[in-house]
Amino acid sequence: MRIGVLTSGGDCPGLNAVIRSVVHRAVGDHGDEVVGFHDGWRGLLEGDHRPLDLDAVAHILAAGGTILGSSRVRPEQLRDGVERAREHLARLRLDAVIPIGGEGTLKAARLLSDAGLPVVGVPKTIDNDIAATDATFGFDTAVGVATEALDRLKTTAESHQRVLIVEVMGRHTGWIALHAGMAAGAHAIVVPERPFDVDELTAVVGKRFEAGKRFAIVVVAEGAKPREGSMPFETGGTDVYGHERFAGVARQLAVELERRLGKEARPVILGHVQRGGTPTAYDRVLATRFGRHAVEAAHRGEFGMMTALRGTEITLVPLAEAVARLKTVPDERYAESECVL
Ligand code: F6P
């Protein structure tokens, strides 16, 4: 069998572990040939690729980023590119393509699959917001990085008697904010699923200082917004791909809390550091299992599917289901954080 693999969308710790696993299973165990497309869908649309043998994936298990590169593609570019993708698959005599990516990539994978191309998707996102799988690799690493940062920020906040507003990733969902905030004992957690009321947030932080505490840590997901009319808020507009640009919620909240509380407040934006570097053991294991199961699905001819973790088992779910719904933080989980606004 000949298999193509690509990584698309924002990078994520564990991508290399999937690529390695695909090559090990396909080339090492089945005697297949594997090619890697460069820079995600761009590589497939332009036929830009290289062969991947066992040597090509040596020593990449623990490496961050992706050896294949990644890119974002506008949905219309891909819609127009279906026939080009079909031509390249035929020219390279590929029997299957395994795109590894998040929501946008899986939507694109479904588009190609609906057009009859042999696709098996592998989900990735540090945001952990794909509903069809219990977990995605990259999340555990991102939460670990954010937690370590929060632990460090506590000591400097206390020294200066400051309020630190720490912005973590999470475009539509607050999983990183919730888990890192809980792990580090944050005093308030703000997630996109629940527009926040700045009066409530001020009261929570204010009570801490009244009780004699010397600092406060507020964790906020980058996609969080205030309740309508709760405070002046500038949105960030959209980027060239039509994605919402982040508004700088931590910066705007810091200004507002400092004004209301009369305490020094500082924004800290963790940004892409949460996506960089070596994956945790958990993420390497999940990524490796996904890669192996994607190859097995291709060998069984189960196309139009995505690998998913359900409980402790890896299963396949239709790509249609995979892109249908985001996994948001439910109220009961948020309530468990013990720092409810
Ligand atoms: O979806 C993963 C993610 O890291 C989000 O948490 C974040 O909002 C987004 O990607 C950032 O994308 P970019 O790398 O294009 O700035």
From TrEMBL:
Residues spanning the membrane: none
SUPFAM superfamilies: Phosphofructokinase
Function recorded in the entry: Catalyzes the phosphorylation of D-fructose 6-phosphate to fructose 1,6-bisphosphate by ATP, the first committing step of glycolysis.
Gene Ontology terms: biological process: canonical glycolysis; fructose 1,6-bisphosphate metabolic process; fructose 6-phosphate metabolic process
Organism: Streptomyces caatingaensis
EC class: transferase
Site keyed Important for substrate specificity: positions: G104
Family to which this protein belongs: Belongs to the phosphofructokinase type A (PFKA) family. Mixed-substrate PFK group III subfamily.
Name of encoding gene: pfkA
GO MF annotation terms: 6-phosphofructokinase activity; AMP binding; ATP binding; diphosphate-fructose-6-phosphate 1-phosphotransferase activity; fructose-6-phosphate binding; identical protein binding; metal ion binding; monosaccharide binding
Positions bound to substrate: T125, I126, D127, R162, M169, G170, R171, E222, R266, H272, V273, Q274, R275
Protein name: ATP-dependent 6-phosphofructokinase
